[in-house]
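Hi X.,

You mentioned you wanted examples for the new student's onboarding notes, showing what a folding record looks like when two proteins sit in one file. Here is a clean example. The first protein comes first, with its sequence line followed by its structure tokens.
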Amino acid sequence: MSSEHVERRLAAILAADVAGSCRLIGIDEEGTLAQLKALRKTLFDPKIAEHHGRIVKNTGDGALVEFASVVDAVRCADEIQRGVAEQNIDVPQVKRIEFRIGVHVGDVIIEEERYLR
């Protein structure tokens, strides 16, 4: 084992992505990207800020978000899911943007502000 110190911290990581994003983009690329951008601005980012999260990585159709509290991470995920469901009420099933969201709690290794878990 190396004697080099590895910085770790306990964190709750919210992982989110859009279910079927390739299919949605195939149906309507510009419309899907515009919807994703709007959801991020009006729902996703505000909820993350409200629950004290920090976006670690954007993936285009998803994100990894760090929270100091698992309670904040789960509440954020729940509120995002409820908000998306409300916005989808009048959208045909085939065109709905729906997020898959999971929360993991554990040590993360910090290196140049990236997580190496």
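Then the second protein repeats the pattern, sequence line and then tokens:
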Amino acid sequence: MNSQKAWMLCCFFNFLIACVFGLLMRFMYLFSLDFLNYSFLLHAHSHIAMLGWVYLIVYVLVVHFFIPKEKSQKPIYNRLFWLTEFSVIGMMIAFPIQGYALFSIIFSTMHILLSYVFCRLVWKDCTKDKSPSQRFLLVSILFMILSTFGVWCLGPAVSTLGKQSAFYQIAIQFFLHFQFNGWFILAILALFFKQFQNKIDEVKFKKFYFLIIVSTLLTVTFPMRWFIENDILSYINILGVLIQLGAFIYFYKMLKSQMNYFKSTLDKIAKMVYSLALCSLFLKVGIQLLTIFPNLAEVSHQIRNFVIGFIHLTTLGIITGFLFGILLQNKMLSANSEILKAGMKSGMKCFILGYISTEVLLFLQGWFFYFGEGTIPGYFQSILIFSVLLVLGLLLIMSSIINSASRMPVK
């Protein structure tokens, strides 16, 4: 097994563990598990999903697509990957046992410091061109570094004002906003643009590029508004989401002329996964537009189902959807027998069904709460069953990767 395939398998293992933690949390709504702490498990689930799955699979794909072969095979990339995975394993063990405490903080901090090393390496080694994909990659790295400023504020926030303070809560939201909307989504788009081999309208791209950066910076005011009573923050967020709408209108126009050619390079399952990712992306833009209305902006963070649904829309629908599409398109999830190919397709379909079903239930339950209708009959049982599909889908995908002797394509 070559190193990049081992890396990829490791990423899917992390994703599986994150999904199992999520499944256990849904199990705990129905059955008592006294040996597990729900909030500790929640910390483990979110950290492993973000830092063990999304961060590391982006690491793998950035090295594969953006770092020239002679540089990507330097030992530093392999060592850095496994050191980062060591920090993830540390969090995987520490968070369920102790929550936010000494060892989980040590491993989380280690991950951040290693991410700085990765940023430095990519900045130094990636191909020096001014293609759309290259520019998106570099700005995503800057957003990643910016996001960590929020983490470094947590210590001073706790020591001076405590965990309940607005300062502490805003520092967390600052980190999450720029991780998801800055680093992750822009890095995913960089990888996506790479698939078009830079055949993108330069004028439309420049407008999209400028508008998406501005909107990402402005919309950080939305979660800040939860903790600071200030109408100016609301107005800035409204401006941000309107600019974001403009950005994605240019995104659509930019790719429209390329789509027929692009679709012709994809098989049926890759088309389905990319369609899911693009639909989730435009749904996210639409949901953020709704925060223009004050009453909807208020309930968007007060009703937990909406919060979880939106986070999963971003992580499972947009980010994971694009990642799966890129992996399938480039035969990086290829299988060398009809049985394994069937297993891979079944795994993808199972995962997609689990994602769509849980999202529908989460948002539907959120609207039930909004209209004062209470809990949907059988809600907890249903969402647990559909969550099993996510885990089952990943197991099928992983079994195909493990049993496949095919190699990743050479750049």
